[in-house]
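agent: user wants the structure for Universal stress protein from Haloplanus litoreus. delegating to structure tool.
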Amino acid sequence: MISRILVPMDDSEMAQQALAYALENHPDAEITVLHVVGEPSLWGGAATSLALEEDLEGAAEERATEVFADAQELAAGYGVEITTEVQLGHPARAILNRADDFDAVVIGSHGGSLADRLAVGNVAQKVFRNSPVPVIVAR
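agent: tool returned. relaying tokens verbatim.
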């Protein structure tokens, strides 16, 4: 029985669909929404600007605010309270580091272009291949 679910979320539609799947199919499970801040990019971008912050945890929490507000609003529509958590670092690594504490991970597939929709996203693929618990990829 799945009683604890980890739902990694960013601000994508696929992440919202993953949370909706978890809420619809596991209404009695404890759901934790994880947002990972500081994903490295070719140009530095978010990771570089985050590294320059004086209060790293505070800056990460601030960046997660909108994602968590959307997640809590969606969960409220199902009459479910969720737990939220922010992690710093690479998304796949952070998700895999937390996965052991849950019965399953529900993650959104990569959205966007037709090519992206035909293949599972890079983070989802890494989590799917390396997770110590079952992974459900929502589309």
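agent: one observation worth passing along. The first strand starts at residue 4 and ends at 8.
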